[in-house]
Amino acid sequence: MIRVLVVDDSMFLRNAVKGLLQQDPEIQVTAMARDGQEAINKIKAAPEDFDVITMDVEMPRMNGLDALKAIMEAAPIPVLMVSSLTEEGAVTTLKALELGAMDFIPKSMEKDKEAFGKELRLKIKSLARRKIFIRLKFGRLHKPIPEQPKVETKPQTQHPQASSTHTSIQPIPPVQKFTPKSNPKRSTIPPDYIQTPCKGPRDLVVIGVSTGGPPVVQKILTALPADLPACILIAQHMPPSFTGPFAKRLNGVSGLTVTEAVDGDRFEYGHAYVCPGGKHIGIRMRGPLPEIAITDEPVDALYKPTVNVLMGTAGKYLGRRTLGVMLTGMGNDGIDGAKILKDNGGCLIAQDEASCVVYGMNKAVIDARLANLILDTDDIAPAIIRTVRGL
Asked: Which residues of 109-134 are buried (b: 16+ CB within 10 A; e: fewer)?
């Protein structure tokens, strides 16, 4: 049984979330809280009673960000942020993901309650499986939660337009000799899987990512040098109001130039393009030169953007010049595009199970034996650098 703590200042929303969650017999809402302080008090009294927390952001007395910081400092539990669809809500949610929240879900109940409930239950069940992971990640097990959150130190996050002095995530220096990490206690790579380093140079990197992705993408991009001789295209499953702030945030912390992609953008080295939410990103040829295509097709795709379009068109037009990277995400979006990419000479890196929030999209690529390399998050940026530069 998955035990959930629902935190929201609206009694209506608390009860609505509870009702939607308990449609699944494997999920039980064991407690509810009106604000962050009440949530902390409940966790302090019985830290083992909760497997996942749903957390609203804007609440009286103590908001979701302050509560999240206190929880992660003392009794790490997977947290799902419930976010508004405004740009301000997107900025706050991205901060929450940096502080330790594992994922978010937009408040879209009024538009389609059934779809919202289905996604909510899927995310709760996925996050519950990562309870041990988040405890290990934060390195603390049920230390006493202080009555008040710390106020003497500022959060290590800034507005997405922050300058390059931002220090919350330190770049990973390029390595001269690349050796994938190996930890027998947590290895999830099939024992008979043969890894083959990608041959380069390659000047296009395409990244597919979904649940749990923003902090991973940020970590990878901040570790890449500004003079990387490649263009990067990113298909991240996100609402339309989130991708603009996401690109701005990445631009503020990375040496690369990062923008939300516009149809017809030309490829530039040292530039990463984030697909606008609700659209697809792909590649088309304008004479002998490739350019970015932002389109509504296919209109019936389950995800917008779908990674299949990105990797499929990259494979079709620039296969041997392309390095694909498949990161954490629910489902198997991207598997068809990955096959096209590999059939046309592309190379693929997949994030390993131990370092991702949801082992889905990357698992599909690994199970199909399409990944050249299966890497821990920390190893992905050095591998990109080596492949792009042909080292």
From this structure: beeeeeebbebbbbbbebbbebbebb
In this structure, the answer to whether residues 210 and 93 fall within a common structural domain is no
In a domain, 172, yes or no: no
**For the whole model, what pTM was predicted?**
0.83
Name the strand (E) or helix (H) holding 54: strand 52-56
Which residue would you say has higher pLDDT here, 115 or 159?
115
Higher pLDDT, 47 or 135: 47
Q: Residues 248-266: pLDDT tens digits?
A: 999 999 999 999 999 999 9
pLDDT at 180 over 90: no
From 237, 241, 271, 379, active-site residue: 237
Query: Can you give the pLDDT at residue 89?
Result: 84
Residues 6+ apart with CB under 8 A from 214: 94, 97, 236, 246
CATH number at residue 65: 3.40.50.2300
Catalytic residue selected from 8, 51, 103, 333: 333
Model pLDDT for residues 119-157, shown as the tens digit of each residue:
999 999 999 988 877 776 665 444 444 444 443 433 443
For the question of residue 271 being annotated catalytic, the response is no
Residue range of the domain that includes 85: 2-138
Q: Among candidates 352, 291, 295, 336, which has minimal Cα distance to 318?
A: 291
Do the domain assignments include residue 187?
no
Coil, strand or helix at 361 = helix
Query: Phi and psi for 165 in degrees, rounded to 5?
Result: -80, -5
Of the listed ranges 21-25, 67-71, 233-237, the least confidently predicted one is 67-71
380 assigned to some structural domain: yes
Together in a domain, 369 and 222: yes
Dihedral angle over CA of 194, 195, 198, 204, nearest 10: 110
The answer to whether the beta carbons of residues 332 and 349 sit under 8 Å apart is no
- Please confirm, yes or no, whether 166 is among the known catalytic residues: no
Q: 210, 241, 254, 355: which is the annotated catalytic residue? A: 210
Q: What is the pLDDT of residue 162?
A: 38
Q: What is the arithmetic mean of pLDDT over 26-45?
A: 94
Work out the number of other CB atoms within 10 angstroms of the CB of residue 148.
Answer: 11
Total domains, the chain:
2
CA angle 67, 239, 4 (to 5 degrees): 40
Q: 266 lies in a domain?
A: yes
Query: Of the residues 82, 110, 138, which one is the last residue of a structural domain?
Result: 138
Catalytic site includes residue 210 = yes
